[in-house]
Amino acid sequence: MKLLRFVPRTNDFGYLDNSGDWSLFVKGKPINSWKPITVKYVAHGKKSGDFPGLLLNVPVFSKNAWEILQKLVEKDVQAFEITTKVGPYFVINVLAVIDCLDKKHSEFVYYPNGSIMRVASYVFKKGTIKNHHMFLIPETTGLEVLVTEEFVNVVQDNKLAGVRFEYVGEA
What we know:
mainly beta; 2 helices; 12% helix; 4-stranded mixed beta sheet
């Protein structure tokens, strides 16, 4: 199974103003209380997409994208509606944190303090992803969101726009 990094295409599409506290969305833990908010949509003359950028590790889906992808990812995420000038969107809180990285064979880039900056080369344990299609890994929680090839296929088959996928490995 191919695994890919979810990356909003903010150079080609509009994005959401990320001022405010989005820290609850980067921990892989449930959010128990949410009041819908209005978020500034920044277009700079660009078209609106189905996945406007907010933060790299906090996906945002258009209403259409959520309706298409909900059944595939609903056990892995929470979706919280926000309002923008171009319509409703859903901020995605990824709950699935899967310990699937083979740490012995993967390569890491470290900060001077010894914490992981990023994964340079991913090697995944076979059979650990199972029926998850959007998830975090403990080593990079707060830095990136990973998805399966099936997720990518649904996005592409439905011509959803505003995201690119970077291949990271096989599981």
